[in-house]
Amino acid sequence: MKRRKFLKNASLSGIGLALGKSLTSCAETTPSDSVISTLEVASLPLVIATWDVKNATAKAWEVLQNGGSALDAVEQGCRVEEANEKGQSVGKGGLPDRDGNVTLDACIMNQNGDCGSVVFLQNITHAVSVARKVMEDTPHVMLAGSGAEKFALQKGFKKENLLTEDSKKSWEAWKVKSEYSPIINIENHDTIGMLVIDKGGNLSGACTTSGLAYKLNGRVGDSPIIGSGLFVDNEIGAAVATGLGEEVVKTVGSFLVVELMRQGKSPQEACEIAIRRIVDKPNSNYKNFQVGYIAINKQGQTGSFSIHQWFSMTKFQQGKNETIQSEYFNKDA
Ligand code: ASP
């Protein structure tokens, strides 16, 4: 029943696939045909991001309009949410772990397949920019914890207390019961993941988060793990994840979405199949957590899909910045 329902959803949203104004779909193709190569390119550039983050996508768009690269755009876009103290799951003001520490995870990837990442970073608001420095200024991909912080300080980043009064209050309220339950709020979780394709058709992506609220000290999610939280392949497309990171890591979700596109699936189909990979597991507990993917292919087709309702994707294209509710799997709620 579960599976039938999903397949129905999948085919409906396949029919409703948003193709962009100048994009025309190819006629009859089989999965083995190269669907991508027979499609025209949608209007570029194009910015997409997880959740309703119009200020962030507007910033990325502005960077592109001013001649910045796709990489500059994703970094600057993500920084908007990192600096937004009201957003309690990214950057400054992020909810802490159960011991009261705000710890950030972020990564970034460019059109050449280069990438950088920071995990368990403390006291630095702009984790995405530290990740970019790791990519550009070191021979490494990932720096963690105090090493990442030391590196950031050496690079001139400012040391700041990331635990705002509001987040401290929320943590103190949580401590009254201290129920450790790593379950993601279905309606409201907002790691920001952003994907950009520039007017030349080159892709970059980034992802930044404070991870699960009240997590165990030391916990790292999917967001800084290349292939899980984010993957970019400039020949094919890019994908980024949000939601319960453990479930994304177990299926190497973003890489899976990109590989499905390589096999000829549209971004929408690829996101749906990757979600199905999670919910179809034996003993899947999917009713209790959320995972969402957004994806873009080389031609500027986009897709987004989640387990539960209320996930959304913000898209900036042809001067229009809009948040679109995603199709989702669990219609039983
Ligand atoms: N994926 C993030 C994590 O598990 C959480 C989120 O999407 O907000 O750390």
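^ aspartic acid complex. Residues 2-15 form the longest helix (14 residues). The longest strand covers residues 115-121.
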